[in-house]
């Protein structure tokens, strides 16, 4: 049985079509990612799965329970971390956590193991009001609150936005362990490296799912020829590359620019000459394998 | 662009900020050069937002001397506010005003005249490709648009310095890169950029980067130098090596 089954879900807000026609399923114990531009419909979908809003059309179940009819039971089984602030600003860190534990009839001590890795980072500040935490510290507390009743399905809406690079690593290690313990996880993320850590990823755009696949399939399907290009001035480099004949996309990637050409076209040796003529120095051009971020950007701009 | 011989546009000496007995900024000292893109990195809770608010004249330090854009932080706050732009970590536009109303509101704060405001507003919406969104409420437009608009509004008065506190947090990979194109452009036009981010590829675009750990600056240099000092191939590695004192 699928942990989550969604069939032809649609949802409007006034004249805005937030979800058009969404179908997918998530296996028990799967780590399932959603990516896509803001406003694509991820949050609306997550609010339907967590029984907070009702779809206009279609059917969705969580652990076989219907999101409309069985919402009470689902709420016991599901942990939800909304993208926006979900904490009580006037309660301390500790009080927030206790509050969520109590609502679900459990205790912090009982499930401390689940949250330890993240909670230790904010525990030194447990007496501090949640409203006075830094942005990333709030995210960490919100995640602990979503986990404290040991849900069997975890729905996370951009949990690592604002979280620092070290903590993101730890966070994903924790997700891996939760998954291994049998918890089903659905997560939206703007970080493409994180998308690459999911079992499967759905790309959602304008209220529709454009593609669902594993990270390795996504990479295998990348159609273009891709080059990494460096020079001593990244800003001019990006601008000049965009004007190069037949170029398909130009994206900054840290120290280099990634330049793609549609199948059948390539940079050839003329790119070197072109950049030299534009006055660039320290030019290095090398073919590269597309990474997961290249692949998703290619899908997004279509 | 960073030039060692350029004049200092921000000078911070021994900045301390306490909340009760907790020390959020612990004797910070650093300079920012005119025209550079200065990356202000650090783990969650390191004290970045706290310091930025002080630099923008929005909160007072506990002690220390600070000069921003040639003005003293204690005596010339109003001048500082006129000469800087600020985009806060939380979203800085009004959700229930339209795109145009937000532009007009911010331009008005900086004392731009009505005619100038109209001109800049339409120029801006043209440039951002947001003309159809002119009369839409901020709450109804996508995050990426909001962030680009918030940035444009933060520099609508041609400030000397713009402070950007996690401007690309949660923004999709394509839009995030467009945002950096705007940063580069502002920098080319001579605006000094002071920016925080948790995306380590973005740290590579900065002229110099400081990394804060527990209220102190643990490292400050160009990305190239930092990578060679820490034997790392990317800023991500540098950050992972430095950024947090391990909690046992
Ligand atoms: N008004 C306040 N009262 C008490 N503590 C505060 C207050 N404001 C901030 N702090 C504390 O100061 C520390 C630094 O917070 P700050 O927001 O500057 O961090 P940051 O580096 O911006 O982190 P992030 O990357 O998560 O945004 C944190 O421990 C925070 O809880
Ligand atoms: Mg901050």
Give short descriptive properties of this protein:
heterodimer, A: alpha/beta, Rossmann fold, Alpha-Beta Plaits, 2 domains, six-stranded mixed beta sheet, 11 helices, B: 248 residues, alpha/beta, binds adenosine-5'-triphosphate, binds magnesium ion
Q: Which structural class do you get from the secondary structure elements of chain A?
A: alpha/beta
From the alpha carbons, calculate the radius of gyration of chain A and give it in angstroms. 22 Å
List the helices and strands of chain A in order. EEEHEEHEHHHEHEHEEHEHEEHEH
Cα(first) to Cα(last) distance of chain B is: 40 Å
Let me know the average pLDDT of chain A: 92
**What is the CATH top level name of the largest domain in chain A?**
Alpha Beta
Hey, roughly how much beta strand do the residues of chain A contain?
Answer: 25-35%
Strand content of chain B: 25-35%
CATH topology (level 3) name of the largest domain in chain B? Rossmann fold
State the distance separating the first and last CA atoms of chain A. 34 Å
Q: From the structure provided, what is the oligomeric state, counting identical versus distinct chains? A: heterodimer
Order of helices and strands of chain B: EEEHEEHEHHHEHEHEEHH
């Amino acid at each position: 049985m699928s942990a989550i089954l969604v069939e032809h879900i649609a949802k409007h807000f006034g004249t805005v079509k937030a979800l058009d026609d969404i179908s997918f399923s998530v296996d028990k114990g799967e780590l399932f990612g959603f990516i896509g531009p803001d406003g694509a419909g991820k949050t609306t979908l997550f609010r339907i799965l967590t029984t907070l809003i009702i779809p206009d059309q279609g059917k969705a179940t969580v652990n076989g329970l219907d999101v409309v009819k069985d919402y009470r039971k689902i709420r016991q089984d599901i942990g939800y971390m909304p993208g926006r602030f979900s904490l009580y600003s006037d309660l301390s860190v500790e009080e927030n956590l206790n509050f969520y534990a109590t609502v679900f009839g459990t205790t912090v001590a009982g499930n401390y193991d689940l949250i330890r890795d993240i909670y230790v980072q904010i525990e030194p500040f447990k007496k501090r009001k949640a409203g006075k935490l830094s942005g990333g510290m709030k995210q960490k507390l919100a995640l602990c609150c979503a986990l404290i009743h040991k849900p069997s399905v975890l729905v996370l809406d951009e949990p690592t936005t604002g979280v620092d690079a070290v903590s993101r690593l730890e966070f994903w290690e924790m997700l891996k362990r939760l998954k291994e313990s049998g918890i089903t996880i659905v997560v939206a993320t703007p970080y493409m490296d994180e998308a690459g850590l999911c079992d499967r990823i759905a790309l959602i755009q304008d209220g529709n799912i454009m593609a669902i696949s594993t990270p390795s399939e996504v990479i295998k399907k990348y159609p273009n020829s891709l080059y990494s290009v460096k020079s001593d001035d990244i800003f001019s480099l990006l601008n000049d590359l965009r004007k190069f004949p037949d170029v398909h996309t130009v994206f900054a990637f840290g120290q280099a620019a990634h330049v793609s050409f549609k199948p059948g076209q390539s940079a050839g040796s003329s790119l070197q000459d072109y950049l030299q003529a534009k006055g660039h120095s320290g030019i290095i051009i090398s073919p590269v394998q597309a990474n997961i971020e290249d692949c998703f950007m290619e899908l997004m701009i279509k | 662009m960073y030039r060692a011989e350029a004049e200092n546009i921000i000078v911070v000496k021994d900045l301390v900020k306490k909340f009760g007995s907790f020390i959020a900024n612990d004797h910070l000292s650093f300079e920012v050069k005119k025209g550079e893109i200065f990356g202000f990195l650090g783990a969650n809770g390191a004290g970045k937002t706290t310091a930025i608010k002080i630099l923008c004249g929005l909160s007072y330090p506990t002690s220390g001397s600070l000069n921003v854009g040639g003005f003293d932080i204690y005596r010339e706050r109003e001048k500082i506010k006129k000469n800087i732009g600020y985009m806060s970590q939380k979203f800085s536009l009004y959700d229930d005003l339209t795109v145009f109303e937000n532009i007009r509101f911010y331009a008005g704060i900086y004392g731009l005249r009505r005619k100038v405001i109209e001109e800049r507003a339409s120029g801006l919406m043209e440039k951002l490709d947001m003309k159809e969104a002119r009369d839409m409420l901020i709450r109804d437009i996508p995050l990426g648009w909001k962030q680009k608009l918030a940035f444009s509004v933060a520099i609508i008065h041609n400030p000397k310095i713009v402070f950007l506190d996690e401007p690309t947090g949660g923004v999709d990979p394509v839009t995030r890169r467009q945002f950096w194109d705007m940063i580069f452009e502002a920098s080319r036009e001579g605006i000094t950029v002071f920016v925080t981010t948790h995306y380590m590829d973005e740290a590579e675009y900065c002229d110099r980067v400081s990394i804060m750990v527990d209220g102190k600056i643990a490292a400050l240099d160009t990305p190239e130098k930092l990578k060679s000092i820490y034997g790392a191939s990317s800023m991500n590695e540098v950050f992972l090596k430095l950024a947090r004192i391990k909690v046992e």
